[in-house]
């Protein structure tokens, strides 16, 4: 299970980095989204992964902490997801504005001279 | 009031006065001056009243905890030495305030001047009274800043701007060095409390970090006291109004450096390094300052160099490391302040009355200003060290000390000669000052004709100071004696030597040196008189070697040439190389420590691969790769696959016991996809046929990027694998799991962490969210999108043609009814989704859900209405004010947090209780829920704001759309 997830994270990172280095704004925004998935999953995995152990306590409180997965990375990732959405939106607007202003969707605001 | 409160009042009073003066109207000259005078007077009285408490070696202390874990406390401490310095600051401050009232012109914004002056007084008192090294460094920097403001007070004057900038650069840099030095000292002594550091003198001197600490502290002290080679800022600071020069640049601020050396004398002095570093700087300054002073043509320039030289004298005394020399240093600090401040004020009067400070133009002023002239003569006699004046006493002590052997070396042997030569120079420039300005033929080309005596109140401060020079000079033991003794004992403690303050010590070597200096100085003046009457400003030979030039050249080199060079060779405006560099650096930064630190991930285990999970990730991997592959030419396909990867992430969260994350991820995925879809229409069309020929360098670039991407991917895989298989240490997780129910009152631990345990973090995060949303909104308000890159779709064209062909149908009817059934369903879903959001919100504390998820769900409800009927339709029926939602959310969250103050608890303490509600049953009710409500409202507002702002752009486009079909662009 860990291996599968690790490979998945790796592929997402690789694809994200590749897109990050491309010249078109749209590629970069897709790349950033992929990277944020990868990073979120990575942080999520820091606490170790467990099945059938959500950090939802039974009625009346705790029995045994070992029966639950680590809630701290989850709390971190939850806010990261929401903030990631906000920054994606911001970037989208910036790229649209840049396209409107410069007439191109190149990340530098002008086509590269060859 | 007890002493401790008085001490606190003494420090706060000038700052309060400064604040009050800043609020006065620009024209309120007299009010500002009176305020400053009264504050200074009150501070002087308070200081004087504290004398009985510090006499006899006692110390007044008051301390507040600030950051006690770092041993950083707000400690004020007044001993005899600090008392004497405080007297100097408040006393001269009072006189300067009186003087300045008459000096400042009607056009100047006077309240601002007095506001700065009082702030400076406060900062200076802070240095004198600090009982903690860090606090001292803070006040130290504060004096640099206020000094900058005061020198640049006439900011319309270029010289003032340059002078203030230079002073700030030099003293500010010294201040930074000092801070590091003091941190080192505190580290060695094991605390920043001044008493602790002073008591740890032996440990400090023996410590291997002693030399770096000493050099850094000296950098601070020497820059502040304008010691060679940092002396050049002081003459340039003379562009300040004269009261500032009198106050800051002769009596107080430049004394801060030597004050610090005296203050830390018990902790740092007495070593060989101390003798050489301090001694070299001191003697060089003493000699060069006096020499340069002779050749100045500007009155204030002469006084500035003379100040530098006298400060050098004090530094030299301190370098000797003997207690007697320290006594002389403290004594001379006081004496110099009295005669130099009065001389500056006299120079100000001369400038004021004649309109110039150029000694080549001034002459014979005695007949116009007899009283001022007499006062200036007495003061400059004190400066020259003429008997029966205070300057003579401390200079004699200095001469006596130079004769003694301290650290046996060349420098020590040369010291008596250096001292005598410098003494002779002092006589020369003092004589020159008096003779050129007051004697000789009447002046011929003064800018202001008919100079006359200033108002008596303007002269009064000089009279008082000169009187002090005389009293101390004639009956030292009876006047300054006890106070000096108190100050000296405070520094030296048990080491306090026997010293005598008599005027006549018999015919001894120091007296011979004095006589030689007087005679040689007079002779030198007679020789140089002709030359000086016409020569250029500055000493011969050295004239061209100006510190200012060197300083500016260094600044230009560092901040312009080197920066340009660096920019030219390593900078780029292009984003791709920057990102490439960043990514590569990130990879290396992770790789190097892991590789050299011995990174051994567990051997890969292929056992029991979960089939379903593997299938999920097979899809996830293909989606990610597909998105990467298609992002250039097929945006919608790439977006779909990005969504696929997101869904797989979401399923992973479900699979691995993170229901909250899965829920939030799913909702965010929906919103993100819609958002990007909204934006797609403004991106240019890209044709796969064009740009298909990639040349060699392009291929090379791609290969390089691919390598970076693959390396990062593999690295990330290994790292995640290692992290996930690592045995989890006993982390804070258990704490949260155990306390969530008992203290947070909720069973969903993730939610309890977000809204209770770490609510302050969440508060920060929702603030960020609000700011981003507002930024998006602001950007889109001014933004005109590019023309649509997509022409009207074929199906719409056919529908419109159908309408046009039939007379009973208006154009657009068919388009309006397009997808009617889905949009009706979407409209009907509105209440359903709102209920769903409410459901998510209420159960959030116990079960997956909560403010974030509910907020996004609610935003989706609004979004659907826009999708169903278009922006106009939705806004005709719904009044959504997202900015208010954001504001209300932030306020609710903050108010909930502050509510706990009412019960005497820290910010964001929560209270939890289960409440039975009829029909619904037992519901957890915690104040955290109110906080969560704030989160909910803010998330709704922010998300809706961003979506609506983007959706509105489509309305704008209709407005600007041209009748012709748009040409599709070529990429």
TrEMBL record, chain A:
Keywords linked to the UniProt accession: Cell membrane, Membrane, Transmembrane, Transmembrane helix
Primary subcellular site in the record, as a coarse category: membrane
TM stretches of this protein: 6-21, 28-49, 75-97
Cellular compartments per GO CC: plasma membrane
Localization of this protein: Cell membrane
Protein's membrane topology: Multi-pass membrane protein
Similarity comment text for this entry: Belongs to the CPA3 antiporters (TC 2.A.63) subunit C family.
UniProt name for this protein: Na+/H+ antiporter subunit C
From TrEMBL, chain B:
GO molecular function: antiporter activity
Spans traversing the lipid bilayer: 6-24, 31-51, 81-103, 110-128, 166-189, 209-234, 246-268, 274-295, 371-394, 414-434, 464-484, 504-528, 579-599, 611-629, 636-656, 662-683, 703-724, 762-780, 818-841, 847-869, 881-903, 923-951
Domain MrpA C-terminal/MbhE, residue spans: 700-797
One Pfam family per UniProt: MbhD
Keyword Repeat carried by entry: no
Domain MrpA C-terminal/MbhD intervals: 622-685
Broad class of the protein's primary localization: membrane
Cellular component, GO annotation: plasma membrane
Domain NADH:quinone oxidoreductase/Mrp antiporter transmembrane, residue spans: 130-408
Na+/H+ antiporter MnhB subunit-related protein domain mapped to chain residues: 822-944
Protein's membrane topology: Multi-pass membrane protein
Coiled coil: none
A GO biological-process term: proton transmembrane transport
Keyword vocabulary terms for this entry: Antiport, Cell membrane, Hydrogen ion transport, Ion transport, Membrane, Transmembrane, Transmembrane helix, Transport
Cellular compartment(s): Cell membrane; Membrane
InterPro entries recorded: CPA3_Na-H_Antiporter_A, MnhB, MrpA/MnhA1/PhaAB, MrpA_C/MbhD, MrpA_C/MbhE, ND/Mrp_TM, Proton_antipo_N
Record domain NADH-Ubiquinone oxidoreductase (complex I) chain 5 N-terminal: where: 69-114
Protein name: Monovalent cation/H+ antiporter subunit A
Organism annotation: Metarhizobium album
């Amino acid at each position: 299970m860990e291996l599968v997830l690790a490979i998945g994270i790796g592929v997402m990172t690789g694809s994200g980095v590749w897109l990050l280095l491309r010249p078109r704004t749209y590629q970069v925004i897709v790349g950033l989204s992929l990277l944020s998935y990868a990073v979120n999953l990575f942080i999520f995995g820091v606490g170790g992964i467990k099945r059938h152990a959500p950090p939802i306590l039974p009625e009346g409180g705790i029995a045994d902490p070992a029966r639950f997965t680590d809630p701290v990375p989850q709390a971190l990732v939850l806010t990261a997801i929401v903030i990631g959405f906000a920054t994606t939106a911001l970037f989208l607007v910036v790229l649209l504005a840049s396209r409107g202003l410069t007439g191109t969707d190149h990340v530098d605001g002008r086509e590269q001279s060859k | 009031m007890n002493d401790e409160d008085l001490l606190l009042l003494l420090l706060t009073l000038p700052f309060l006065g400064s604040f009050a003066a800043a609020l006065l109207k620009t024209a309120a000259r007299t009010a500002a001056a009176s305020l400053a005078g009264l504050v200074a007077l009150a501070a002087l009285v308070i200081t004087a009243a504290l004398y009985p408490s510090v006499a006899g070696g006692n110390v007044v202390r008051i301390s507040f905890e600030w950051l006690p874990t770092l041993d950083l406390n707000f400690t004020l401490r007044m001993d005899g030495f600090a008392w004497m310095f405080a007297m100097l600051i408040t006393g001269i401050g009072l006189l300067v305030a009186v003087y300045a009232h008459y000096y400042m012109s009607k056009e100047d914004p006077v309240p601002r001047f007095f506001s700065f002056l009082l702030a400076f007084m406060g900062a200076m008192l802070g240095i004198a009274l600090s009982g903690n090294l860090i606090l001292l460094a803070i006040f130290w920097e504060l004096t640099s800043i206020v000094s900058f403001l005061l020198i640049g007070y006439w900011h319309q004057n270029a010289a003032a701007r340059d002078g203030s900038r230079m002073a700030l650069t030099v003293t500010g840099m010294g201040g930074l060095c000092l801070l590091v030095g003091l941190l080192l000292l505190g580290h060695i002594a094991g605390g920043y409390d001044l008493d602790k550091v002073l008591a740890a003198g032996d440990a400090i001197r023996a410590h291997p970090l002693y030399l770096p600490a000493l050099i850094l502290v000296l950098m601070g002290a020497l820059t502040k006291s304008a010691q060679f080679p940092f002396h050049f800022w002081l003459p340039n600071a003379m562009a300040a109004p004269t009261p500032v020069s009198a106050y800051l640049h002769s009596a107080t601020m430049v004394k801060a450096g030597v004050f610090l050396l005296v203050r830390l004398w018990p902790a740092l002095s007495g070593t060989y390094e101390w003798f050489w570093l301090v001694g070299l700087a001191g003697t060089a300054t003493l000699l060069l300052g006096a020499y340069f002073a002779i050749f100045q043509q500007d009155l204030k320039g002469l006084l500035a160099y003379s100040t530098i030289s006298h400060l050098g004298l004090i530094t030299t005394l301190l370098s000797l490391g003997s207690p007697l020399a320290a006594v002389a240093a403290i004594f001379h600090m006081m004496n110099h302040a009295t005669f130099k401040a009065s001389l500056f004020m006299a120079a100000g009067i001369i400038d004021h009355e004649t309109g110039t400070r150029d000694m080549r133009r001034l002459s014979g002023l005695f007949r116009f200003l007899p009283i001022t002239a007499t006062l200036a003569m007495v003061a400059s006699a004190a400066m020259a060290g003429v008997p029966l004046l205070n300057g003579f006493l401390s200079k004699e002590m200095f001469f006596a000390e130079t004769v003694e052997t301290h650290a046996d070396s060349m420098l020590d042997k040369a010291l008596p000669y250096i001292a005598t030569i410098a003494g002779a120079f002092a006589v020369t420039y003092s004589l020159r000052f008096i003779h050129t300005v007051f004697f000789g033929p009447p002046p011929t080309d003064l800018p202001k004709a008919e100079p006359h005596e200033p108002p008596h109140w303007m002269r009064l401060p000089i009279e008082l100071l000169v009187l002090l020079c005389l009293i101390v000079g004639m009956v030292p033991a009876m006047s300054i004696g006890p106070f000096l003794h108190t100050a000296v004992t405070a520094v030296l403690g048990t080491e306090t030597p026997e010293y005598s303050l008599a005027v006549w010590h018999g015919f001894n070597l120091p007296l011979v040196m004095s006589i030689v200096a007087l005679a040689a100085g007079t002779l030198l003046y007679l020789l140089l008189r002709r030359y000086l009457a016409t020569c250029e400003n500055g000493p011969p030979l050295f004239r061209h070697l100006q510190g200012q030039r060197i300083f500016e050249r260094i600044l230009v080199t560092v901040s312009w040439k080197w920066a340009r060079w660096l920019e030219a060779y390593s900078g780029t405006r292009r984003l791709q190389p920057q990102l490439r560099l960043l990514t590569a650096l990130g990879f290396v930064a992770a790789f190097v420590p892991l590789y050299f630190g011995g990174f051994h991930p567990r051997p890969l285990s292929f056992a029991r691969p979960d089939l379903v999970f593997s299938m999920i990730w097979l899809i996830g991997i293909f989606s990610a790769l597909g998105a990467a592959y298609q992002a250039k030419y097929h945006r919608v396909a790439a977006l779909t696959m990005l969504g696929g990867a997101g869904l797989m992430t979401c399923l992973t969260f479900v699979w691995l016991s993170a229901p909250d994350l899965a829920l939030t991820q799913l909702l965010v995925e929906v919103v993100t996809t819609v958002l990007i879809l909204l934006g797609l229409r403004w991106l240019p069309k890209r044709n796969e046929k064009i740009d298909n020929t990639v040349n060699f360098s392009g291929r090379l670039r791609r290969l390089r990027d691919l390598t970076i991407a693959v390396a990062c991917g593999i690295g990330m895989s290994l790292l995640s694998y290692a992290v996930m298989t690592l045995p989890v240490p006993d982390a804070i997780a258990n704490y949260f799991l155990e306390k969530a129910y008992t203290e947070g009152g909720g069973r969903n631990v993730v939610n309890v962490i977000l809204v209770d345990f770490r609510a302050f973090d969440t508060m920060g995060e929702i603030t960020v969210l609000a700011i981003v949303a507002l930024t998006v909104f602001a950007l889109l308000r001014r933004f005109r999108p590019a023309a649509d890159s997509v022409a009207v779709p074929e199906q719409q064209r056919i529908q419109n043609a159908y309408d046009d062909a039939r007379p009973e149908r208006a154009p657009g009817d068919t388009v309006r009814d397009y997808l009617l059934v889905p949009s009706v369903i979407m409209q009907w879903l509105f209440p359903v989704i709102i209920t769903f959001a409410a459901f998510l919100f209420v159960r959030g504390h116990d079960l997956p859900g909560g403010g974030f998820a509910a907020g996004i769900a609610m935003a989706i409800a609004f979004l659907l209405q826009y999708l169903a009927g278009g922006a106009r339709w939705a806004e005709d029926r719904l009044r959504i004010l997202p900015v208010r939602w954001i504001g209300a959310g932030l306020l609710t969250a903050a108010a909930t947090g502050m509510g706990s103050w009412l019960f005497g608890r820290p910010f964001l303490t929560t209270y939890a209780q289960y409440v039975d509600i009829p029909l619904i049953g037992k519901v957890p009710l915690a104040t955290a829920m109110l906080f969560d409500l704030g989160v909910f409202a803010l998330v709704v507002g922010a998300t809706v704001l961003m979506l609506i702002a983007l959706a509105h752009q489509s309305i704008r486009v209709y407005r600007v759309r041209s009748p012709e079909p748009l040409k599709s662009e070529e990429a």
